[in-house]
Amino acid sequence: MGLLSRKATCNSHGQDSSYFLGWQEYERNPYDEVENPQGIIQMGLAENQLSFDLLESWLAKNPDAASFRRDGQSIFKELALFQDYHGLPAFKNALVDFMSEIRGNKVKFDPSHVVLTAGATSANETLMFCLAEQGDAFLLPTPYYPGFDRDLKWRTGVEIVPIQCTSSNRFQITAAALEEAYQEAQRKNLRVKGVLVTNPSNPLGTTMTRDELDLLVNFITDKEIHLISDEIYSGTVFSSPAFVSIMEVLKDRNLGKTEVWERVHIVYSLSKDLGLPGFRVGAIYSNDPIVVAAATKMSSFGLVSSQTQYLLSAMLSDKKFTKEYIAKNHKRLQKQRSKLVAGLGKAGIGCLESNAGLFCWVDMRHLLSSDTFEAEMELWKRIVYDVKLNISPGSSCHCSEPGWFRVCFANMPEDTLKLAMQRLKSFVGSIAVNDRSHQELKNSRRKFRTKWVFRLSFQSFHDREQDER
Amino acid sequence: MAIEIEKPGVGLSKVAVSETHGEDSPYFAGWKAYDENPYNESSNPSGVIQMGLAENQVSFDLLEKYLEEHSEASSWGKGAPGFRENALFQDYHGLKSFRQAMANFMEQIRGGRARFDPDRIVLTAGATAANELLTFILADPGDALLVPTPYYPGFDRDLRWRTGVKIVPIHCDSSNNFQVTPEAMEAAYRCAESMNLKVRGILITNPSNPLGATIQRTVLEQILDFATNKNIHLVSDEIYSGSTFSSSEFISIAEVLETRGYKDSERVHIVYSLSKDLGLPGFRVGTIYSYNDKVVTTARRMSSFTLISSQTQHLLACMLSNKEFSENYIKTNRERLTRRYDMIINGLKNAGIECLKGNAGLFCWMNLSPLLEEPTRESELALWKVILNEVRLNISPGSSCHCSEPGWFRVCFANMSEQTLEVALERIHKFMEQRRRRN
């Protein structure tokens, strides 16, 4: 029997990381309100389950869209045969309108610049194939979505070099960090082809500031490299500051039709904003016609089902629906996030101030037995196995500081979130009582904590903590 | 051959600018000509008739009838109770009910002569993705796969473009009805060796595209033996397995393995899709069936890049689990394809054109070598242009399928109405008459 390829036998699929191990543990013992109330609550899955009723009611009112009918006529045959990699025109038109609407109509998108792919997973990989050779590198700010290790590197052979971000300035990208990452790539003999950012950020849940975006544009102009902005969470920005898309910055700086304009590419998907990860709807948006042409051909390897394209073209063309959906979805996300933050606060835990996403970036550094990743893993295991919450450790997101965790809030009902917070509170309480090292850690906390990181007010568990804020 | 980009510094990848996507071949040029002047019975009766597209349009009424009678398949039932769960389902294992239905369907197609385990099925967005994925798994960049000629032009892109893997052809010719022989396989292997290429596998399409014929059992055994002796993989693309005109004539590699007690089967992988048999290319439904556990696991993980819409999985799980529907569909579809095939073969015969004896697929392999000025590729392309521009039929020249004998053409018959096929046959008849008179 012949051996398999190097790709098949290497570990770049990333499935041995803790990110996936937490999932496995959850699968073995999943929480269910009725069947398994002692089970593990899944807080490691960035899914949006808060607005399904809106989708369901639209479907009930518009049965034709799922039944292959247009204006009462069956278009089944037409859809069944439609495999054109240029995509269903009606769907691309509706999609760019939706993308515009999400950005407050401050930018307009051209449907002929859109390439449809089976999910953002496919979009990101396809862009790597188009922009980089095996052995080239892309710079990514940390912490970043663990899936990128697989999506960007596995089959493409592209390398990721991290742009280290820290809590000292809320994990924002700095010019120094960008330059340092670039130099690091040089030292490793890697040719840098571009920067990839996720905006709003996963796992931070924050939108990038205009300054950061300007910095990026300057950087890629100077280095003559690409910029990919994965804006998969753009529809989840529930409070200020408003979302600023990279396209808006380019427009405002009058960079349209310049060289840098063609080196900026956006990735989008309906998996987070609409909560439809199963439907595999992703998109690449590029101003470079060669990239669009190449990516379009490559999309043959991951086209969106025409059945699904049609359903969504009907849904997203309904402007009354999209307006209502976007607004209500924001409200619900904001509300749920507040509950999470309040609950964490009751447990004496703070998190990064955030205005987007389906998760919070939670600071548990004060609960670590030491300022190390080993201690973070130790704490994570306790939270998964003892507290029975599956959350994502910062190390799986390549965070440079131990003690941070991504905690999802949009994939469960309010009651489950409440329960999760109660469990966390009990856990933290039990540490205080049992861990002697906790006292030492509290003394050293002054060194590591900064005011930026915590919310201005939250309930403290111990009176003694009040003087440390 | 890569196009050089004059831009300083950045540029795109070699893959992005190369021509390995193959879109400049006549296969695609014919499509363009059709797109610019498409035949329509009423509005454009002198337009180009598309006979270069291997689509199955003969059995849509059966699908539409099913959908009408089973609205729950397309709408998640009244009030959409299953919608939420379906919309969230992105597990790369795929919907269990769908895999089960696919396994059953594949068994039915093979008349129950082979069994399929749903847990060995990996789902991909079409066979295009399945073939590329397998290539990523079975070979490293620079390695080679042996593929019998003539073969589906899309393989040049699917197997080579992003994978960096090479295709070394196993030359077949009309002397024995284009069947693969041990000598031809051996020659291809040696050819690869002489180019310092490591052969990782052999990929066959059975039933064959473009031949429209099933591979005989003895030949399958020889191919399997060859793969075993060289210790390489065997991929059997059985995308047309449900389009055989008679159930008993198609022998799947699965049956050969079954006969051998599955000995040494970890090197065998089957590709399937619903694009041809069910006529649903737009839905992007492909599968890899592997007898190798490591391949199954790896393929599953890789399928993250090419998952099938859960909405579509749900629809097809319902449809294919319905035994009454699937049995009737397979039987009726076969009958209709057979009827079309007979129609085109007789029509061509009356025009004085011979075809390879076929028993499957959505096309026939037509022999126009007597019409060539010279037995060369250039002559073949010249004839192809004449047929495209004067007869106004888009058919696929054998050279685009890497056929080593000039003069053969693939002609599709299932992607149009019977009336349109009649029109096409009339045009061919007229064309042949004109040529005879000139000579």
Automatic annotation (TrEMBL), chain A:
Pathway entry: Alkene biosynthesis; ethylene biosynthesis via S-adenosyl-L-methionine; ethylene from S-adenosyl-L-methionine: step 1/2
Catalyzed reactions per annotation: S-adenosyl-L-methionine = 1-aminocyclopropane-1-carboxylate + S-methyl-5'-thioadenosine + H(+)
Protein name: 1-aminocyclopropane-1-carboxylate synthase
Assigned EC number: 4.4.1.14
Co-factor requirement: pyridoxal 5'-phosphate
Keyword Lyase: yes
PROSITE patterns: AA_TRANSFER_CLASS_1 (PS00105)
Family membership noted in the UniProt record: Belongs to the class-I pyridoxal-phosphate-dependent aminotransferase family.
Superkingdom of origin: Eukaryota
SUPFAM superfamilies: PLP-dependent transferases
Pfam family, any one: Aminotran_1_2
CDD domains xref list: AAT_like
Entry keyword set: Ethylene biosynthesis, Fruit ripening, Lyase, Pyridoxal phosphate, S-adenosyl-L-methionine
Domain Aminotransferase class I/classII large: 41-424
PANTHER family reported for this sequence: 1-AMINOCYCLOPROPANE-1-CARBOXYLATE SYNTHASE 9, BIFUNCTIONAL ASPARTATE AMINOTRANSFERASE AND GLUTAMATE/ASPARTATE-PREPHENATE AMINOTRANSFERASE-RELATED
UniProt keyword S-adenosyl-L-methionine, yes or no: yes
Organism (species): Hibiscus sabdariffa
TrEMBL record, chain B:
Domain of life: Eukaryota
Keywords in alphabetical order: Pyridoxal phosphate
Metal-binding found in the keyword field: no
Alphabetical list of Pfam families matching this protein: Aminotran_1_2 (PF00155)
Domain Aminotransferase class I/classII large positions: 49-428
The keyword Zinc-finger belongs to this UniProt entry's keyword annotation: no
CDD domains with a match to the protein in the record: AAT_like
Assigned protein family: Belongs to the class-I pyridoxal-phosphate-dependent aminotransferase family.
Protein's name according to its UniProt entry: Aminotransferase class I/classII large domain-containing protein
